Amino acid sequence: MAKIQNQFTNVTVLTKANIYFEGKVVSHTVQFADGSKKTIGLIYPGNFHFGTQAAERMEISAGTCCAKLDGQAHWKEYATGQLFEVPANSGFDIEVKTGICEYVCSFLS
Q1: What pLDDT is recorded for position 1?
Q2: Is the pLDDT assigned to residue 4 strictly greater than 90?
Q3: Among the four residues 6, 56, 102, 107, which has the most C-beta atoms within 10 Å?
């Protein structure tokens, strides 16, 4: 199980929310001094598809979800402290069955 950071220091947080799927997925962008960025968000129950431009690391900071990368046949369950990576120019399906899934998405170079 990965160690998920529970706080970030010396960052800029954009106050405008990123809202997807009629408010069922909501995140805020966190910018770091080195130019990197992450989003921190919530996923409410439902099944959603996201496309990627950059490679991404999705870290589950609370709750559970199931995810399936584009081109894969099987879903995998992820819980607090687990993560999955998505290649650039790809995508993934994510499903939250109950409760709220909290995540940190890192954009990889």
Answers
A1: 56
A2: no
A3: 56
